[in-house]
Known about the structure:
Layout: H1 4-17, H2 22-34, H3 38-51, H4 57-68, H5 72-89, H6 92-108
Amino acid sequence: xxxxxxxxxxxxxxxxxxxxxxxxxxxxxxxxxxxxxxxxxxxxxxxxxxxxxxxxxxxxxxxxxxxxxxxxxxxxxxxxxxxxxxxxxxxxxxxxxxxxxxxxxxxxxxx
Length: 111
């Protein structure tokens, strides 16, 4: 079974070979988050939002990373932007997930 470092290197190489595709970068950010490399995950989510602001799956996970970094106001703003973008695309499912994350954040703090 490949180590976390091997997986990260493979995904990074894939992202570098396809820098304009959103899903590989999303996968890299998720792998960083899974490994607890939150600053790296946050940077990849920022880049993904810069390159593909319409890729609405980003906003939920980016907000989760920001909340784990105790950047609650940034998480809130990220989820609010994600709700706006999701609604603009007609993606009510993602908007509802983001609204639930906001409600949880407001109701009891980040987990």
